[in-house]
Amino acid sequence: MLQFIQCNEQNDQSVRDELLAGLSAAQAFTSPKYLYDALGSKLFEAICELPEYYPTRTEALIFKTHGRAIAQAIGSGSTLIDLGAGNCAKAARLFPGLQPVQYVPVDISVSFLRESLQRLQQQFPSIVMTGIGMDFSSELLLPDSVRDKKRLFFYPGSSIGNFTPEESLAFLQRIRAACDEDGGLLIGVDLVKDKAILDAAYDDALGVTAAFNLNLLRHLNHLVGTDFDVQGWRHRGFFNDKASRIEMHLEAASGQIVRWPQGERRFERGERIHTENSYKYTQRSFTDLLEQAGFRKLSFWTDPQQWFMVCHAHVN
Ligand code: AVJ
Question: Is any atom of ligand 1 closer than 6 Å to the C-beta of 157?
Answer without folding.
Answer: yes
